[in-house]
């Protein structure tokens, strides 16, 4: 039978969604028989969860990051069989009844989850005999967390060998964990020359070009970042505000010094082209965006991370030599000054990024998932 691949995600933050879309595109471009569909569990939850609940989550991250750090750390101490996790799983199944009904009514042959909530819920269905399809899980950060590990999961895909070992320490079967990387859009595997990208985008060909991006949910301090960069000399700054029109308007109102050039963008579907055109990215250390930078060899200066998983991402990226921390304006000016004074270091960071990059992760995950036998569990 031709495969019927279900890619389950949650649209809380942009990364999980983008990983799911990358996997679907890899399936379509790979010429596989059958079909792949993405399902957003959040959009099948009650309005109170996907509306006010989601806004409350973003507000917590933005206004009370210390509280989120405590929640993240406490949850990380739990296990799948613990009382807290059992309660959380029950809540997820209750709120996700429409999602569960969708899975029952449209039974897949294989499942990939890019968020822990559907991963936990579908692992429960798998181990209780309610789902015949094997369930694979994609951890979308360079960090691990206990919430990803659930009995009933057939396979775990992680970003690095380090995370593979840590997930095994948490109880995931070692022979069911592989490290192909985080799935990104197959377009990032194309090697677009910088000169061509700048010409297509109408940019100055010879100026040092910095790509500045905000975080998902409008959490990144993009205006402050751009103002700091603009004061650092002869730079061409590409600032991507995404869907946040208020931030883009603020960017357009910045009083630039004569030496700087600023080009602003809203939502774009050519971020791969912008990355190819840039010499350096300044951004929050989200798992997906970081993986895209690694794939194209783009060095990073990393602004203040969201407590929890993004702190783990920052540590990994700095340790592998592809990034420097830039948590506040002073640290950003200092890090950029170091690179402007030592262009060879920028080249070394670019090489380290390419060494760590996994541009074909999405294809590799699809291949491995479709090889899992439904009766293996």
Structure commentary:
The protein is an alpha/beta fold and 377 residues long. The chain folds into two domains: 4-183 and 360-370, Rossmann fold, CATH 3.40.50.2000; 187-356, Rossmann fold. The chain is 47% helix and 14% strand. The protein is built from 16 helices and twelve strands. It has helices spanning 14-29, 47-63, 65-76, 83-95, 97-105, 116-127, 161-169, 194-201, 222-230, 245-252, 271-277, 287-296, 309-319, 329-341, 343-356, 361-370, and strands at 4-9, 35-40, 110-113, 135-138, 155-157, 177-178, 208-213, 235-240, 261-265, 280-283, 300-302, 323-325. The chain has a six-stranded parallel β-sheet, sandwiched between helices. A six-stranded parallel β-sheet has the order 9-8-7-10-11-12, sandwiched between helices. The longest helix is centred in the N-terminal third of the chain and has 17 residues, at 47-63. The protein is globular. The two termini are 19 Å apart. The mean pLDDT is 90.
Give the number of domains: 2
Please, what is the average pLDDT? 90
Approximately how much beta-strand content do the residues carry? 5-15%
- For CATH, the homologous superfamily of the largest domain is named as Glycogen Phosphorylase B
CATH architecture descriptor text of the largest domain: 3-Layer(aba) Sandwich
What topology, given as strand order, has the largest sheet?
2-1-3-4-5-6
Can you summarize the main beta sheet? 6 strands, parallel
Give the H and E element order.
Answer: EHEHHHHEHEEHEHEHEHEHEHEHEHHH
Radius of gyration: 21 Å
Overall outline: globular
């Amino acid at each position: 039978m031709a495969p019927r691949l279900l890619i389950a995600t949650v649209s809380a933050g942009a990364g999980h969604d983008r990983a799911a879309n990358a996997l679907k595109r890899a399936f379509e471009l790979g010429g596989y028989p059958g079909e792949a569909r993405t399902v957003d569990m959040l959009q099948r939850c009650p309005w109170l969860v996907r509306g006010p609940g989601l806004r409350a989550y973003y507000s917590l991250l933005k206004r009370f990051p210390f509280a989120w750090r405590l929640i993240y750390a406490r949850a990380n101490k739990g296990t799948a069989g613990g009382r807290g996790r059992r309660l959380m799983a029950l809540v997820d199944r209750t709120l996700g009844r429409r999602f569960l009904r969708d899975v029952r009514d449209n039974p897949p042959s294989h499942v990939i989850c890019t968020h822990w909530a559907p991963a936990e819920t579908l692992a429960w269905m798998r181990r209780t005999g309610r789902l015949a399809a094997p369930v694979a899980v994609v951890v979308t950060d360079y960090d691990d967390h206990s919430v990803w590990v659930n009995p009933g999961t057939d396979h775990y895909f992680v970003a690095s060998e380090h995370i593979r070992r840590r997930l095994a320490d948490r109880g995931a079967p070692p022979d069911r964990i592989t490290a192909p990387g985080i799935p990104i859009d197959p377009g990032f595997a194309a090697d677009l020359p910088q000169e061509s990208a700048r010409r297509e985008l109408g940019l100055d060909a010879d100026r040092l070009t910095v790509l500045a991006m905000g975080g998902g949910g409008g959490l990144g301090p993009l205006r402050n970042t751009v103002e700091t960069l603009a004061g650092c000399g002869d730079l061409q700054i590409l600032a991507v505000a995404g869907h946040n029109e208020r931030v883009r308007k603020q960017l357009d109102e910045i009083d630039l010094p004569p030496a700087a050039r600023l080009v602003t963008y809203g939502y774009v579907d050519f971020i791969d082209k912008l990355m190819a055109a840039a010499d350096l990215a300044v951004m929050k250390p989200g798992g997906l965006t970081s993986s895209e930078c690694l794939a194209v060899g783009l060095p990073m200066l990393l602004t203040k991370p969201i407590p929890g998983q993004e702190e783990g991402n920052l540590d990994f990226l700095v340790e592998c030599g592809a990034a420097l921390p830039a948590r506040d304006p002073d640290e950003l000016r200092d890090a950029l000054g170091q690179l402007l004074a030592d262009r060879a270091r920028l080249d070394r960071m670019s090489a380290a990024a390419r060494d760590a990059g996994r541009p074909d992760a999405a294809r590799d995950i699809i291949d491995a998932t479709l090889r899992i036998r439904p009766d293996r569990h």
